[in-house]
Amino acid sequence: MEQLAVILCVIDYKRPGAERPPSLGFLAFGSGLSTDVFRERLTELQQAELLEVRGTEEALEVTVFGLVRAILVSSGLGELTTN
Fold it and tell me: In terms of residue numbers, what domain contains 28?
């Protein structure tokens, strides 16, 4: 459930026109998790290749390409390809 909270918070923050990337603390607060727990779950999701995390704790860049690919594969829709 904590990993799901991390994923939902990251996806919720992604919106057009965001002026800057979120901080780790901001995302942790939004997820209802402590900063340490959020960081641990984020690392787990990155190690599972579901999320890619770059930047600093003050400005995190998180992509969900791996998660989208896993969903497409498990749903039978196949691989996501880039042109």
Answer: 2-74
Q: What is the pLDDT of residue 45?
A: 97
Q: What is the CATH number of the domain that holds 14?
A: 1.10.10.10
How buried is residue 45: exposed, middle or buried, by Cβ count under 10 Å (0-12/13-18/19+)?
buried
Whole-model pTM: value is 0.84
Q: Is 77 helix (H, G, I), strand (E, B) or coil?
A: coil
| Domain-embedded: residue 82 | no
Residue 41, classified by CB atoms within 10 Å of its CB into exposed (0-12), middle (13-18) or buried (19+), is buried
| Total number of domains constituting the chain | 1
pLDDT tens digits, residue range 20-70? Answer: 899 999 999 999 999 999 999 999 999 999 999 999 999 999 999 999 999
